Amino acid sequence: METTTKTKTARELAETYFTAWEAGDFDTMRGLLADDVDFVGALGTAQGTEEALAGLKGLGRVLERIDVKVRVAEGDEVITWFELCTSIAPPAPTANWMHVEDGRISRIRVTFDPRGLLAGLGKPS
């Protein structure tokens, strides 16, 4: 019997991304991201897998949970609306858009009000 590998849909990639991030499973996350992933968010930008993972690991140190409210997928695009729950700030309502190419996440855009997190990190807003 022949075994075939099913490519994950954009929605499945997004679900796996958030589950892995919440669990601190950066090896799994590495496999989801394109080598040239382009990340732009409220706290910074990153080019490439290693920069993106470094930023996610940094925020992961204070991450308690990701409370997903809704996920909408259309083709290679996914938007996830969630509350970013950390140990240093009130939950931050957050929108995350991802674009998938060739079975990997190639672009990520994240927007939220960063003032609570910045205050919790001791940085001026």
UniProtKB/TrEMBL annotation:
InterPro entries: NTF2-like_dom_sf (IPR032710), SnoaL-like (IPR037401). It comes from the Bacteria. Residues 15-107 form the SnoaL-like domain. This is SnoaL-like domain-containing protein.
